[in-house]
Amino acid sequence: MSLKKTLIKIAKILLPFLLGAFLIYISYTQFTTEQLDEIKGYLRDADYRFIALGMVLAMLSHLSRAWRWNYMLAALDKKPTYLNNIIAIGSGYAMNLIIPRSGEVTRAVIVNRTDDIPVDQGLGTIIAERVLDFIILLAITATAMLTASGEIVEFFKESIEVAFAKANPIKITTYLIILVIIVVLGIYLLKKLQLFQKVKGFLAGIKDGFTTIWTMEKKWRYLAHTLFIWFMYLAMFYVCIFAIPDTDSMPVSAVLCAFVAGSFAVAFTNGGLGAYPYLISQVLLLFGYSAVVGTAFGWIVWLSQTLLVIVFGLLCFVLFSMRK
């Protein structure tokens, strides 16, 4: 393996982790000692019955995902046992905590070992389901933006007013020129490094994957499982608001916006390390919640779901080793 490829692989592992560590650092340096003690108090006194219920709902979504996968694999004349699918998915989730986005490859490799399904075909089915999941997430994001339009507009309005009050025309013009230069250079580099063609190829693959969903047998069952999976995700997040007295009356708009922030945070760092509680706390600021409450709530949700993934993943790794 060349040095360049080795460095790229190391960067893929280290950068998300360093980003998460950085977000944890900037998040907690803003708090006083008293505020940190208050966050610890929220974690200590939370009603963990609701947290446990959230973990059960999340587990149901994982089991549904394993069942849904067979509908896509059936189009390849492959049908692993339900337990093998569970093992692959649980192991994939655990791997994502170590190396972001490595779970998809892990899933494909495991069903290749257990059921002799070619890795490229397994990855194709996983990419197809990710496409549909991303579309569902975009729909939830749009709904969140609409329901919280008042808070969002007010936030940007205040931010723009503050920015213009502090800025002067010369600085604004300079920043605009710099922005245009960066965009032009970015497009040039994309084409020069042939990344533009890779992006086009990736988008074409997404299109093919989404088309496969609509041409497969039992597509309506597949879509029903997809809706169930995302309903469980939302339900898991929603029940957790009752674990803290200060968030038990959180409006639906705030729940949706915080859920979306957490969902995107998972893609930035190792399973959302640092990014998940930080982004959720920043979103809840728009709805009048303090940074202390928002941070405590974000950590409660993230820690409970991460614990579930670790336990579930370790169990799946053990079962995989036993079956081989």
From TrEMBL:
The chain crosses the membrane at residues 7-28, 48-67, 131-152, 172-190, 222-244, 250-268, 275-293, 299-320. Pfam families: LPG_synthase_TM. The keyword Transmembrane helix applies. One of its GO terms (cellular component) is plasma membrane. The keyword Transmembrane helix applies. It is found in: Cell membrane. It is a multi-pass membrane protein. It comes from the Bacteria. Its main location: membrane. Keywords: Cell membrane, Membrane, Transmembrane, Transmembrane helix. PANTHER family: UPF0104 MEMBRANE PROTEIN MJ1595 (PTHR39087:SF2). This is TIGR00374 family protein.
